[in-house]
UniProtKB/TrEMBL annotation:
GO terms for biological process: mitochondrial gene expression. The lineage of its organism: Eukaryota, Discoba, Euglenozoa, Kinetoplastea, Metakinetoplastina. GO terms for molecular function: mRNA binding. This is Pentacotripeptide-repeat region of PRORP domain-containing protein. Coiled coil: none annotated. PPR repeats lie at residues 442-476. It comes from the Eukaryota. Pfam families: PPR_3. It comes from Leishmania braziliensis. GO terms for cellular component: mitochondrion.
Length: 596
C-alpha cells in the first residue's frame, strides 16, 4: 500500500485494502471444503473480482461493501463436493498498520471524500482493530483539511484508558493550526504542555516567546520584531476560518491566569540556561510589567513574588512601575508586612519623592491609568483596627531592628486610622512622629487627616487640624484647601468656605482653582443665596477662571425660582465664556482627580 501510495495510485491502494479486508480478517465460520476446491474457489473469486476492479478505480469516492463475503465464491462453494473436509481456524491478521497506510494515502491526496474515511473507520470497528496514535494523527490531518475542528479527537485520546500519548507530529499540527485560533484555554494549555515535553522539536524559544506574548496582553499591539517573527504563520489564518475558528477572536483574547504566563517564562529561562542563550533577548521588561499588572488584577501574590525572583535571577532592573504593581497586588492580598517593606524600599530609592497618593497613578509603559493610586490601595486594604495594629507592630519591629521607617508609610496609617473612625489614634500617631519615629509631619500628613475625617458633617476637627498645621510651620497645598472648602460647604457653612477660598492666595505658589469655586457656587444656588453666588462669580473672574456656562445657567435658574435677582450674574455669563475660550485651563470643567 505504501508503494502504491508513493506512486500515486490510489486505485491500487483501494484494491489492496479490499483484498486485505477479504483475506486477512478472521473467518466467521469454519471452512469446510478440500484444499483443491478452496484454491479453485479463490482463483474464481479473484477472476470475478478482477472485473470489478476497474469500476472500483473509476468510482474513487466509494468502496465495495461486500468484499468481506463475495457472493460468487459463496455460490461456488455451495455447488462443490464437500467429501474432503478441512477444519481450519486462524486469528485475524488485520491490524492498525493496514488502515493507517490507507489513511496515509488519503492525506497525500488533494481531494478525498468524508464517506471514504467513515467507511474505513467502520471497517476498523467491525474488525475489532483499535485506533493507535498514528491513526489519530492521520484523522487530525484529515479533519483539518476537510474543515472540521479536530478538538474532539484530542479529547478522545485523553479519555482513553490508559491515556494515549499523541505523536509529536499531532502536537505540532495542533500548535500550528489550532492553538493560535482556539478560544478554549484548557485545550491550549494541554497542547502546550504536551509540546513542551518534546523539547525544541516542536516549540523553540521564539515560539515560546510568541505564545507568552499572546497569553499576556490580548489588546497590546505587537512590535515590529514580533510581527516579523510571527509572519511565518500567517498562512494559517484562512485555514482557521475554514475549520470554524475565528481568527479575530484568537487564543490571545482569552484571559489566561498569570501563573500560566509565568510557567512559559520559566520554561524559556530553563532553555536559555541549557542552550547558553540570553534570556533578555527574548523577554522584554514590558512583559514583566504586563504580567505583574495581571497579577494585581487577579490578586495573585504568589506569582508576583516569583516574578520578582525571576527578575532578580536575570538581573533585570525593577522600575518604580514594577514595584508599584507589586505593592498593589500585595495590598489586595493582605500581605501587609511585605507591602510595607516594599513601600519603605521604594522610599529609600527615591521613587516616592514628589508622589501624591491622592491622585490617580499611571503606568506609563503600558498606558494604563489606575482607578486609585497604588498607595491608596494599601490604605483601602487595612480597613479594620486589627490590620492597622498589625501594620504598626511591623513598623515598630523595623524600628527596633534599626531599619528605616519613613513618613510615607506613617501617613498611610494615619489615613487608614482616620477612615475607620479612629481619629483620636490618628492624631496621637501624628503627634508621635518626631519623638517616637524620628520624622517630621509634612503637608500630606495633615491632608491624610483631613481627607480621612471628611465623612463627618462637622468642620470642628478640620479647623483644629488646619490650625495645628499652620502652627507647625507646614505649608498647605491645593488639596488642603479643596478638602477644607468641600467640608465647609457640606456642613452648610458657606462663609467659612469663602474664608478658606480667599486665604488660598496668601500662600506663595498657590492659585485658586475651579474645583474650589464650584462647590460654593452650587451650594449658594441651591439655598437661594444670590448675593453669595454673584460674589463668588465675581471672584472667579478676578482670578481669571471661567466657569462653565451650563453650571452658571443652572445656578441662574435655581436663583430665579427662589426669587433672587440674577441680572448681575447674567451679565457675567459672557465674560466667563470668553475666559473659557481664551484660557486653555478654563475651556472645560477640570476633572477632579482628587480621591476624597
Amino acid at each position: 500500500m505504501r508503494v502504491y501510495t508513493d506512486l500515486g495510485r490510489i486505485d491500487k491502494v483501494r484494491e489492496v485494502l479490499s483484498v486485505g479486508l477479504r483475506d486477512l480478517d478472521a473467518p466467521v465460520e469454519l471452512m469446510s471444503t478440500s484444499p483443491a476446491q478452496y484454491a479453485w474457489l479463490g482463483s474464481s473469486a479473484r477472476r470475478r473480482d478482477g472485473g470489478t476492479t476497474a469500476a472500483a478505480a473509476s468510482t474513487s469516492l466509494k468502496l465495495q461493501t461486500n468484499l468481506l463475503a463475495p457472493a460468487a465464491a459463496e455460490r461456488e462453494r455451495r455447488l462443490c463436493d464437500t467429501s474432503a473436509v478441512i477444519r481450519w481456524r486462524r486469528p485475524a491478521m488485520l491490524n492498525a498498520d493496514v488502515f493507517n497506510a490507507y489513511f496515509e494515502a488519503l492525506t497525500r491526496r488533494r481531494k478525498y471524500a468524508v464517506e471514504e474515511v467513515n467507511f474505513v473507520l467502520d471497517q476498523m470497528k467491525a474488525c475489532g482493530v483499535e485506533k493507535d496514535a498514528l491513526t489519530y494523527h492521520y484523522l487530525v490531518e484529515l479533519h483539518v483539511r476537510a474543515g472540521y475542528d479536530p478538538t474532539g479527537l484530542w479529547e478522545e485520546m485523553k479519555q482513553l484508558v490508559p491515556e494515549m500519548t499523541p505523536l509529536p507530529a499531532t502536537v505540532q499540527t495542533f500548535m500550528l493550526r489550532i492553538v493560535p485560533y482556539s478560544t478554549d484555554p484548557s485545550l491550549v494549555v494541554e497542547v502546550t504542555r504536551a509540546a513542551l515535553r518534546y523539547g525544541t522539536a516542536i516549540v523553540d524559544k521564539r515560539m515560546l516567546t510568541e505564545l507568552m506574548v499572546q497569553w499576556l496582553s490580548p489588546v497590546r499591539t505587537p512590535t515590529h520584531a514580533e510581527s516579523n517573527a510571527s509572519s511565518g504563520s500567517q498562512h494559517t489564518v484562512a485555514q482557521a476560518s475554514r475549520i470554524g475558528l475565528n481568527a479575530a477572536s484568537s487564543s490571545s483574547a482569552v484571559q489566561y491566569p498569570p501563573e500560566y504566563v509565568l510557567w512559559l517564562m520559566l520554561e524559556l529561562e530553563l532553555r536559555c540556561v541549557l542552550e547558553k542563550a540570553s534570556f533578555s533577548q527574548y523577554v522584554q521588561r514590558q512583559y514583566f510589567t504586563e504580567l505583574l499588572l495581571r497579577c494585581a488584577k487577579c490578586t495573585d501574590a504568589g506569582t508576583a513574588e516569583q516574578v520578582l525572583a525571576l527578575m532578580d535571577r536575570q538581573a533585570i532592573a525593577k522600575t518604580a512601575e514594577v514595584l508599584a504593581l507589586v505593592v498593589w497586588c500585595w495590598s489586595q492580598a493582605l500581605e501587609v508586612e511585605k507591602a510595607l517593606d516594599l513601600i519603605e524600599w521604594m522610599a529609600l530609592k527615591g521613587y516616592l519623592d514628589q508622589v501624591d497618593c491622592f491622585r490617580k497613578a499611571q503606568i506609563e509603559s503600558l498606558r494604563y491609568t489606575m482607578d486609585r493610586h497604588y498607595l491608596m490601595t494599601f490604605t483601602d486594604a487595612i480597613h479594620t483596627p486589627a490590620l492597622v495594629e498589625r501594620a504598626l507592630s511591623h513598623l515598630q519591629a523595623r524600628r527596633q531592628k534599626g531599619e528605616l521607617v519613613t513618613v510615607h508609610t506613617l501617613d498611610l496609617l494615619v489615613l487608614a486610622l482616620a477612615r475607620i473612625g479612629e481619629e483620636r489614634k490618628a492624631l496621637q500617631l501624628v503627634s508621635a512622629y518626631e519623638p517616637r519615629w524620628g520624622v517630621a509631619p509634612r503637608t500630606n500628613t495633615y491632608n491624610a487627616l483631613l481627607t480621612g475625617c471628611s465623612r463627618y458633617r462637622s468642620t470642628m476637627l478640620h479647623r483644629v487640624v488646619y490650625k495645628t498645621m499652620k502652627n507647625s510651620g507646614v505649608v498647605p497645598n491645593v488639596l488642603t484647601f479643596r478638602v477644607l472648602i468641600r467640608q465647609a460647604v457640606t456642613s452648610g457653612n458657606i462663609d467659612e468656605a469663602i474664608a478658606y477660598l480667599e486665604e488660598v492666595t496668601t500662600y506663595p505658589g498657590l492659585r485658586v482653582e475651579v474645583e474650589m469655586i464650584l462647590p460654593i457656587l452650587e451650594r449658594a444656588a441651591r439655598v437661594g443665596d444670590g448675593e453669595t453666588a454673584t460674589r463668588v462669580s465675581q471672584y472667579s473672574l478676578k482670578c481669571d477662571i471661567g466657569i462653565d456656562g451650563s453650571v452658571l445657567r443652572s445656578a441662574i435658574q435655581q436663583l430665579t425660582e427662589a426669587g433672587q435677582s440674577v441680572e448681575v450674574l447674567k451679565s457675567q455669563l459672557p465674560l466667563h465664556e470668553a475666559l473659557r475660550s481664551r484660557s486653555k485651563a478654563g475651556r472645560q470643567r477640570a476633572r477632579n482627580e482628587v480621591l476624597v
